Prior knowledge:
single chain; alpha+beta; 2 domains; five-stranded mixed sheet
Amino acid sequence: MSQPQNPQQPSFNSPREARAQASAEKAYRKAQRPWYKKKRFIVPLAVILLAVIISVSTSAGSGGGTTVVAGGSAAQDPNAPPAFPGATSKDVVAQAGEAVDAEGLVVTTTALVPGDSTLGDTLCTTATYNNGTAGPASFNGGFDWKLQDPNGTILMTGFAGSDNTLSAGEIAPGGNASGDVCFSAPQGNPSGQYVVLLDPTFSFSSERIAWLNTL
C-alpha cells in the first residue's frame, strides 16, 4: 500500500520542473523584500544623498554669495585685533565680493583689479547697490569711496581707470545702481592688504563698510 505524499514536499517529474520551482521561489522572496532593500530604490536614494552631501560641502567651503549684515555679528569685535590698520569697532568688515546689508541697502564690491593705465596705474572695483528700503537711497562714486593701501595711506577716487565709473544720485526703492570705482595705484604697487572703504561724506553714522583685498 503506497504512502500518501506530504503536501508540503512537492514532487517533481523532471529537473526542469525543479529549476522552474526554484526560480519561482527566488522571485517570490525577492518580491517580498522591504522596499528599502530593493535596488530600484537604493540606487536613486544613494544618488540623492550623494548630491546633498556635495551641495552642503560646496556651500560650506565657498565664501562667495555671503551677505554681511551691518551692525550684526560681522561688525568688528572690539576685543579682537583690528581687521586692518585704523579699523574701529563700528566698522563693518567684509571680504572682497561679499554683499553688505546696511539696513536694507545692500552694497557689493568686486575684488580689486588693475584698471586702465593710460594715465598711470590704477586699481578698480565694481560697486553695486540694491535698494531694499522704503525710500530713496543716495550714492556718490566720487566722494563716498576710499582705498587704504598696504602702507596705511588712504586714497581718494580718481577719474581714470574705467569708462564705466560710478556716478552720483539716488536709487528708488527696489532699484539698483552699479559702476566702477577707481583709484591711482600706490607707487611701486606694493603687495599686501588693500581696503576698499565706503565712507559716505553726508551721513549721520560713523559706521564705515570695509572690504578686504589681498594683492
